[in-house]
Amino acid sequence: MSLRAGIVLFPGTNRERDMAIALAKVSGGREPVMIWHKETSLPPLDLVVLPGGFSHGDYLRCGAMAAQSPVMRAVKDFAEGGGHVLGVCNGFQILTEAGLLPGALLNNAGLRFLGQDHHLTVAQTDSLYTKHYTQDQVIRVVLAHGDGNYFADSTTLDRLEGEGRVAFRYAGADGAVTEATNPNGSQRNIAGIFSDNRRVLGLMPHPEDYVDPLMGGTDGLPMFTSIVEGLAA
Amino acid sequence: MKAIVTVMLKPGVLDPQGRAIGHALETLGFEGVGDVRAGKIIELELAETDAAKAKASAEAMAAKLLANTVIESYRVEVV
Questions:
Q1: Do B17 and A103 touch (CB under 8 A)?
Q2: ipTM
Q3: Structural domains of chain B, ranges and CATH numbers in brackets
Q4: How far apart are CA A232 and CA A1, in angstroms?
Q5: Among B65, B66, B71, whose Cβ lies nearest the Cβ of A104?
Q6: Which residues on chain B are in Cβ contact (under 8 Å) with A185?
Q7: Which of A150, A193, A212, B7 has an alpha carbon within 20 to 30 A of B17's alpha carbon?
Q8: Any stretches that span the bilayer, and where are they (chain B) (predicted)?
Q9: Global pTM exceeds 0.90
């Protein structure tokens, strides 16, 4: 099965290779196209990915500059036309800054950069990205962020929960979603959210880091197999 | 003209940096320091010579880019 994926590169993006490896692995070796942030249009694609990194040096706010890049106009059009967009880590921050997902990512409550494994529960399996997981499944992923503290006002949070738009929550190894298992202060332990049509997903952890036993884990792989099953021609 | 844009986290939004500054002040022996909030000041040199227009222009910049109004508020002063 072959997936036409595009990865957007901003100055300071640094996780595009890991993402490309994960996408190629599930797509018969087909490499995603890399798209520079100065581009004003996208080639025909099934999926656009905004990968992790430190776009524009995190100046002003994480993702604030990247959200104003020429390519983001095309990404917005793609999303508004029903296209699938995945933003991981800095990509999630860019999606919120661009207004494609609600809320914002603040400094981690503990002020420390977190580079560590952490567990998540899968809160919504009815989406392109999560259908190969089971409801409330506990997965182990990698965190690598200094600004992953998800914030939205309580009305927005209630709406996200009511509409089934919370994708993942920070949890313990036993699946407990509590303050003690919240690594960065995110409201309601939210690690990832969907757009209202569930075609745009933003999450702070890195599923692309665990797609092969040699990497130390495979809990990210079902996201990529889900995507390719849903989208590949 | 110069516009000075002050950007602060909104009340109710956790400011861990401000809190850490508060703790450090306490450690240094400063007493009576309550809530501490840290923000940003952005100075803009503007070609505009009309103060009202300069302010309106800087406010538009603050709303679109300099502040994220989901979490931050801004104040513009023209000098």
A1: no
A2: 0.89
A3: 2-78 (3.30.1280.10)
A4: 6
A5: B71
A6: 14, 16
A7: A193
A8: none
A9: yes
